[in-house]
Specification:
Layout lengths: L15 E3 L2 H8 L8 E7 L2 E3 L1 H14 L1 H4 L1 E2 L10 E3 L10 E5 L3 H11 L11 E7 L4 E8 L5 H19 L10 E3 L10 E2 H7 L5 H7 L18 H6 L30 E8 L15 H19 L7 E8 L14 E8 L1 H4 L2 H17 L7 H6 L6 H19 L3 E8 L13 E5 L8 E7 L4 E8 L5 H25 L2
Helix pairs in contact: 2-5, 6-14, 7-9, 9-11, 9-14, 11-14
Length: about 500
């Protein structure tokens, strides 16, 4: 976490630029419990050349000031914050090497990394080479104040290009930089999608309830929304009623299961599945893969809450949209996305065949609008009315007070099919995952990307909301909903 005003102004005038409104807000809303970090993770079929990777990272930072930027030192009274566009001292990039010997160790490493905040005075990202017994995982963590999903891919692609040159290999072939291994030995923590679906089959709420480990009413330890026990829900007259945060006019929250209130950090469930092919409908805008992902998440939250004994009201999904010009869609560093909101009601979710069309219509309107959905309070916090240290404290207080009302149910970030995905050599398929922050009360986000084959899905969840078993069951329910919606639409309207 970066606390403002804890450094003295240094002499000289390096190249600087002010933070944008979105960048400043993302900086203010960082916290030690919920670091505002975006994850990119790529798995290849073999091992990487560590020396070549370190040199490639240094090459990118030397050639690209925006990638090398850091938060410029500021006094406690500065009203505007600036990026310092200079390479790090000594010219060495933020590369860390770690080892893992089992899927559980890789998952634990990932969770430790995303429980550790970044100091933006040192770097806006860190690159971790996780060396495994048969293959490596490359994890890129970027601070959301400095990068969005697209610029994260831009950075990783630049590093991969420099790496292939340094290692003397072609992007799609084996060579000195990578020793190819079999990709089918199962030594990974990536979960098979069919296994997830089998564990959380959505033939009915009862089967989902069983898969998630939800007990019937009256069983000690039953967990409700926001960590309330079944006894607490019944005492409040809420068992079987509308879930916490879903009273008329408010936003549905995902029912908690097995979470540890107060535990910091995130867990991850990674999986992949064949890219669904949304059908062309007879009326309205034709749904996209992104529409399918959003509609499926809305449906999954509804069914998940029902299985936990709660009805869902308004479910709102945040969807980041690339705000770059079309000719620069995959270029540029910084947080250049804007957010749109897709909202569904219970009556719409009761008709899965029509839900996708509703979502597609809302998404189309949101994408056509050029207005960023930034509320008045956020705009005020990002103006120069007060020193940045005061605005940071005000933003955090406002977030604590307003988050239960203003924060959407969940978020879907979808990079789509990457036209030029990063590759680090090797002859096998390389999978890529992205995961966006999910601070409470949201508690869960979905990331999607297609690099060179399947659709890679990441369920990122707060430990305060779900435990590993519950998150795995939720992921299975989500994959099932994607398959179901695509099939129903194809059969019903295609």
């Amino acid at each position: 976490m970066t606390m403002l005003g804890d450094t003295a102004r240094v002499p000289g005038s390096p190249s600087r630029r002010p933070l944008s409104t979105i960048e400043e807000l993302d900086l203010y809303l960082d916290s030690a419990h919920e670091p505002n970090l975006v994850q990119l993770e790529i798995h290849g079929p073999g091992h990487l050349d560590r020396a070549a990777l370190a040199a490639a990272l240094d090459d990118v930072l030397a050639a690209t000031p925006e990638a090398a930027r850091r938060l410029a030192p500021a006094s406690p009274w500065d009203r505007r914050l600036h990026w310092q566009l200079t390479a790090p001292d000594g010219g060495r990039g933020p590369l860390t090497v770690a080892r893992w010997d089992s899927p559980g160790e890789l998952a634990a490493l990932r969770e430790r990394l995303f429980a550790s905040p970044l100091s933006l005075y040192d770097a806006t990202f860190r690159l971790i080479l996780a060396v495994g017994p048969d293959r490596d995982a490359l994890i890129l963590q970027v601070h959301h104040a400095a990068f969005d999903g697209i610029s994260s891919i831009t950075l990783l692609t630049a590093i991969s290009g420099a790496y292939t040159k340094r290692a003397g290999i072609s992007a799609g072939t084996g060579g000195p930089g990578m020793r190819a291994e079999s990709a089918a030995d199962g030594k990974t923590d990536v979960l098979d999608v069919q296994g997830l679906i089998n564990a959380a089959n959505l033939t009915g709420a009862a089967s989902l309830s069983s898969a998630a480990g939800v007990h019937s009413a009256g069983v000690q330890g039953e967990t409700g929304v926001h960590g309330r026990t079944g006894a607490q829900d019944r005492a409040g007259g809420r068992r079987g009623g509308i879930a916490a945060g879903t009273l008329p006019g408010t936003v549905t929250r995902i029912a908690a299961q097995g979470g540890s209130p107060g535990r910091p950090g995130y867990g991850f469930v990674l999986t992949s599945m064949p890219v669904p092919r949304p059908p062309r409908t007879g009326r309205g805008p034709h749904p996209t893969v992104n529409d399918l992902l959003v509609a499926a998440l809305s449906l999954t939250v509804d069914r998940w809450n029902t299985a936990h004994g709660h009805r869902s009201g308004q479910i709102r999904i945040t969807v980041p949209v690339n705000a770059r010009d079309p000719e620069q869609r995959w270029q540029g560093y910084g947080n250049l996305s804007r957010l749109i909101r897709v909202s569904t009601q219970s009556r719409q979710r009761a008709d899965p065949a029509g839900l996708l069309a509703q979502v597609a219509a809302q998404t189309r309107v949101g994408k056509q609008s050029r207005r960023a959905e930034i509320d008045a309070m956020s705009r005020l916090l990002a103006t120069g009315w007060a020193p940045a240290t005061v605005k940071q404290r005000t933003a955090r207080l406002a977030r604590r007070l307003a988050a239960p009302v203003l924060t959407d149910t969940s978020l879907v970030t979808n990079l789509g099919a990457l036209p030029d995905p990063p590759r680090f050599g090797g002859d096998g398929e390389q999978s890529l995952w992205i995961a966006a922050p999910a601070p409470m009360p949201r508690g869960l986000s979905v990331g999607a990307a297609t690099a060179s084959g399947p659709l890679c899905l990441s369920i990122r969840y707060r430990h305060a909301l779900l435990d590993r078993a519950a998150a795995t069951a939720f992921a299975g329910a989500y994959c099932e909903a994607i398959t179901e919606l695509a099939g129903q639409q194809q059969g019903g309207r295609g």
